[in-house]
Design a protein that fits this description.
Elements (H helix, E strand, L loop, with lengths): L1 H30 L12 H34 L1 H9 L2 H19 L6 H21 L4 H27 L7 H21 L3 H29 L6 H26 L5
Helix pairs in contact: 2-5, 2-9, 4-5, 5-9, 6-8, 6-9, 7-8, 8-9
């Protein structure tokens, strides 16, 4: 008993001293303008390059979200545009395929600057038009709630991933699960287009989609920190952009169902 107590007494001050030294070292780095390491083992040069890459990706992503909000809001809230869309039913089909059509050349030339930024803008406009048509089918209250929840979930999951990676976690193991999930959604969507699943089935499908794209936010943020080349800023921003937009759409469907819109 005496030995154990002495051992504990010796370990206590030593541990506290180590923690104090660690804190002093961290504060000294902060005062010197040295950024905190993104992940264990990163050299100062790697850390600086990666931080610059991350800032660039989130800058592009922010621009995409602003452009999407402006264009989709204009499409959803302008009566003249709504009348034009109603008079041309083919626009619904066009809005579904245009993002895919514009995504193909974007991925082919994603590393060719400045062509990649031009194609990225075109892709974002196509997505924004599609989102505008989708949001016009929902009430303003549902759209606002979905926006708020999307912002909170995205921010929370992003912070969670950054903190986890800084502590040495690697969420790369989510990749196969995400792939299996997206294949399930693609095949399920194809099947349900021929065999309607009803309101409850669509609700369950939307719940699954919301969970899947939330998982994708963690996975793609992890890849942004650990694996993307610093030249892959377009690929990284597109991945996160699609995660957020798809999460928002699934939340629209979920909230619509919960508020009684069971068409």
């Amino acid at each position: 008993m005496k030995f154990g107590g002495t051992h504990a007494a010796m370990a206590g001050p030593s541990g506290m001293g180590g923690a104090a030294k660690s804190d002093d070292f961290k504060y000294a780095r902060m005062e010197a303008g040295i950024p905190e390491t993104l992940y264990p083992g990163a050299t100062p040069v790697e850390n600086t390059l990666r931080l610059g890459f991350i800032r660039k990706v989130y800058g592009i992503l922010s621009a995409q979200m602003v452009l999407t909000a402006i264009v989709s809001g204009f499409v959803a809230l302008t009566p003249g545009v709504q009348g034009w869309i109603a008079a041309n039913p083919g626009l619904h089909m066009l809005s579904a395929f245009m993002p895919i059509i514009t995504l193909v050349p974007l991925m082919c030339y994603r590393n060719q600057h400045p062509l990649n930024l031009g194609l990225l803008t075109l892709f974002t406009l196509a997505m924004a038009f599609s989102v505008g048509i989708i949001t016009s089918m929902f009430s303003g209250v549902v759209v606002f709630q979905a926006l708020l929840i999307t912002a909170v979930v995205t921010t929370s999951l992003t912070i969670y991933t950054f903190v986890g990676v800084r502590k040495g976690q690697d969420f790369g193991y989510l990749g196969p699960m995400c792939f299996a999930g997206i294949m399930t959604m693609l095949v399920g969507g194809l099947v349900f287009s021929f065999f309607p699943m009803g309101a409850d089935g669509r609700f369950i499908f939307a719940l699954f989609g919301a969970g899947l794209f939330s998982t994708y936010i963690v996975y793609d943020t992890n890849e942004l920190i650990l694996r993307h080349s610093v030249d892959e800023y377009v690929s990284a921003s597109v991945s996160l952009y699609l995660d957020i937009i798809n999460l928002f759409i699934k939340l629209l469907q979920i909230l619509q169902h919960l508020q009684g819109g069971r068409d």
